Amino acid sequence: MKYVLWVVVLILFVGCKVVSTKKYGPAIFVQKEGRANKDWKLVWQDGFDNAEIDTTKWTRIPPNNADWGNYMTNDSRCYSLANGKLSLIGINNPDTISDPRPYLTGGIYTKGKFAFQYGKIEIRAKLESAKGAWPAIWMLSEQNKYGTYPRNGEIDIMEHLNYDAIIYQTTHSYYTLELKQKKNPPYYTTVECDTEQFNIYGLEWYPDKLVYTLNGKESFTYPKISGVDPSQWPFDQPFYVLIDQQLGGSWVGEVNPNDLPVQMIIDWVKVYQ
């Protein structure tokens, strides 16, 4: 048995792609060195073509104490699959007796099921607007290589607030949040975007830079730089994917219940290396 396991580990290491069963942990794809100079190859995707969310790939995000997670739920009213698209919905809570929270929101993540290190990710999605709506597509570390948040960084591929005609694309880390190093290098950008149409929100992730994209065009680059605190670049480890229709929080502001329901519609998610 030990010999068989060793052979499996050796094969996976040589291919620079780690694939684990659910029993042993998530499927983790690590891009082979030198791969960045070759054509992208699709390694993972979901087109949401089934009648239910694929639970081998996604988990409904549970509520948490973070500003963005106050209203997360697995309530089926916050999820809809139809015509090959997944809707993540923010609603007024219809039953505040059993659950006192005023709002409920839908979100999914690949934590514990899929993560990758370097490559390209694209998500085709359409957003709706509402006062207090905060849809987001983002990434967090799978293994916490450097300790607790924000030591391992955060990659925000897309965030949208209220009725804005822009999206935010942001890189967070201990370096930006705790050491307040937000200009060396600049850590975010805003991009004009017609969010009511389907757009492709993307990221190209290299060992030395994060390249954010919108509809296939580069919008912002966050580089790894030398001569600064090493916490500037925690992006050398696998990250998992989060997609959620958030509501409320200190950044987006108060929710207008009259604007609800509001939804983010996901057409597909694709990851390349």
**Class inferred from helices and paired strands:** mainly beta
Number of strands: 19
Q: Helicity level, as a percent range?
A: under 10%
Tell me the strand percentage band.
35-45%
The total tally of domains equals 1
**Which sheet architecture does the biggest sheet show?**
9 strands, antiparallel
**Any idea what the CATH architecture is?**
Sandwich
Can you tell me the CATH topology? Jelly Rolls
Task: Report on the architecture of this protein.
- The chain has one domain (33-272): Jelly Rolls (Sandwich), CATH 2.60.120.
- 7% of the residues lie in helices and 41% in strands.
- It contains two helices and 19 strands.
- The chain has helices at 2-15, 174-177, and strands spanning 17-18, 27-30, 42-46, 59-60, 79-82, 85-92, 103-105, 107-109, 114-117, 119-127, 133-141, 154-159, 166-172, 188-192, 199-206, 209-214, 217-223, 239-247, 262-272.
- Strands 3, 5, 6, 7, 10, 15, 16, 17 and 19 form a nine-stranded antiparallel sheet that branches. It has a seven-stranded antiparallel sheet with strand order 4-8-18-11-12-13-14. A three-stranded mixed sheet has the order 1-2-9.
- The radius of gyration is 19 Å and the shape is globular.
